[in-house]
Every structure is written in structure tokens, then in C-alpha cells.
């Protein structure tokens, strides 16, 4: 999964906020009277709800093994793989920060690389757990109305970050298509501005439910014209004018729900 540095910075800020949330926060956000917030909470509930608050997850993605665990506001994310020299690498991201171990020994790495590695771990797990985190207080939501995609009705929701605390790339934008009846997130899109900018559109595939949490893979698309408005990306998808870039597929998913 290759994302812009700016997008990754936004994602890690978002997920770190999510990781510190509690069951009480989830319930408060779920019971809000604001229609749009309630819609987002319905999507989270449909995909797993309170099960996201305490679990242990393992899966493989593009030749690397990932784990994620959450309990009582604490979280641990790891990535394990062998590098080109055959060294065993373990990257660990938790409430205390990021650590890389090489062949069982802690490695001292420059801050820039540490941030890049932690962003990479976080982004994979972030997309795996979607729509978890979409009702965080730091997230701004905008209702773009109801649209039809592939013959089905969807609430179209735009998500942005505040400038304060949103990092240098707070202008990156996201759109989620939530099914009007099923409350599932079947499509998503995001825009980024670094390295020339661009837009990506993802279609959910291979949906499976494990221990009450929905996991899904994605087909990753891009438009020929990177300067189009992200709000119009679903129209290009419907017209068959997006190019498939890659498949986002998680393998060998194992999930255990744990008590708080």
C-alpha cells in the first residue's frame, strides 16, 4: 500500500486518537442526535461496533505479517518481515511510540525513518479496521446527499481534518459511501496534495465477517485527470473511466475478541 507522506501523517494522527478512545466515548458518539454523526456511528456498528474496543488481530499483507491489539485505550500494532539481506525485522507501534528491532535487537534509527515506518504500519491497519475511527472528535463530516452507485443507494459523506492539529497536510480529503439500508462502507475515496497530488477510489470486495467484525479487501482505482474534484469521482467510476491500480488484499485473518 503506497500512500503520500502527508496522507500517512494524517492517518497516524487520526488512528492514535482512535486508539485512546474508550467504550464510553463510542457509546456517547453513537447516541448523538446529530443525523450525520448518527449515520457514521451506524456504519461503525454495522461493521463491528463495540467489538473494536477490545480485540487481538493478525493478518498477512503483501508478504508481511501484521498484528493489532486494543484493550482499555491501550494498543499495540506490529509488522514482521525479512529484509533483502535476510534479517528479521519487527516494527512495533504502541502508546509509547515506535520501535524497530532487527534480529531481536532494538535498532537506533533516524527520526525521519522512524516516522515513515510507523506511518506505514499504521496506514495498513487503519484501512483494515475501517470504518472504525470515523466518529472521532477531531474529524469533520459533511453530508453530500444520497447517490446511486452500481444501482444501490448510498449516503455520501465527506471527511476532513481541522487545520489545528491536522498536520501539514490537513487539506487531504476523504469521501465514504455508506449503504442507505445496510450501513456498510462499500466505497471510499481520498485526495492528497504532496508529490504532485492525486485522487484514489476504492471499491470493497471479498467481504467476510469474523467474530462479528467485517473485514473487506479493495480494488484501488485512479482517474486519468488528477485535478478533478474528489466529489465527482463516483461519477467517473460509474462511467467506467477509472483505471485499476492495485488490489488491497489481507490474507490469513485471525481475530480474537477480548474482555475489557
Plain-language structure description:
The protein is globular and about 50 Å long. It has one domain: outer membrane lipoprotein receptor (LolB), chain A (Clam). The chain has 260 residues and is α+β, with helices and mostly antiparallel strands. The two termini are 32 Å apart. InterPro entries: DUF6503. Keywords: Signal. This is DUF6503 family protein. Pfam families: DUF6503.
Order of helices and strands: HHHEEEEEEHEEEEEEHEE
What's the shape? globular
Radius of gyration over all CA atoms, rounded: 18 Å
Name of the CATH architecture:
Clam
Q: Write down how many β-strands occur, each being a DSSP E stretch of 2 or more residues.
A: 14
Proportion of strand residues: 35-45%
Strand order of the biggest β-sheet: 6-5-4-3-2-1-14
Major pleated sheet: 7 strands, antiparallel
Tell me roughly what share of residues is in helical segments. 10-25%
Amino acid at each position: 500500500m503506497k500512500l503520500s507522506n502527508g496522507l500517512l501523517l494524517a492517518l497516524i494522527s487520526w488512528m492514535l486518537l482512535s486508539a485512546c478512545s474508550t467504550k464510553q466515548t463510542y457509546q456517547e458518539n453513537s447516541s448523538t442526535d446529530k443525523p450525520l454523526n448518527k449515520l457514521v456511528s451506524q456504519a461503525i456498528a454495522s461493521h463491528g461496533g463495540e467489538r473494536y474496543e477490545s480485540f487481538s488481530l493478525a493478518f498477512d499483507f503483501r508478504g508481511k505479517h501484521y498484528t493489532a491489539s486494543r484493550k482499555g485505550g491501550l494498543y499495540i500494532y506490529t509488522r514482521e518481515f525479512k529484509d533483502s539481506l535476510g534479517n528479521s525485522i519487527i516494527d512495533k507501534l504502541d502508546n509509547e511510540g515506535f520501535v524497530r528491532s532487527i534480529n531481536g535487537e532494538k535498532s537506533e534509527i533516524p527520526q525521519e525513518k522512524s516516522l515513515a515506518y510507523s506511518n506505514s504500519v499504521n496506514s495498513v491497519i487503519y484501512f483494515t479496521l475501517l470504518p472504525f475511527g470515523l466518529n472521532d472528535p477531531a474529524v469533520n463530516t459533511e453530508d453530500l446527499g444520497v447517490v446511486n452507485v452500481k444501482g444501490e443507494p448510498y449516503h455520501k459523506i465527506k471527511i476532513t481534518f481541522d487545520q489545528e492539529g491536522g498536520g501539514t497536510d490537513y487539506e487531504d480529503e476523504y469521501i465514504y459511501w455508506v449503504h442507505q439500508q445496510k450501513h456498510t462502507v462499500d466505497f471510499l475515496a481520498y485526495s492528497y496534495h504532496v508529490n504532485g497530488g492525486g485522487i484514489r477510489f476504492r471499491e470493497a470486495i471479498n467481504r467476510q465477517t469474523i467474530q462479528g467484525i467485517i473485514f473487506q479487501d479493495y480494488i484501488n482505482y485512479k482517474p486519468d485527470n488528477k485535478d478533478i474534484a474528489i466529489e465527482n469521482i463516483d461519477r467517473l467510476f460509474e462511467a467506467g473511466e477509472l483505471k485499476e491500480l492495485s488490489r488491497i488484499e489481507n490474507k490469513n485473518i485471525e481475530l480474537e475478541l477480548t474482555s475489557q
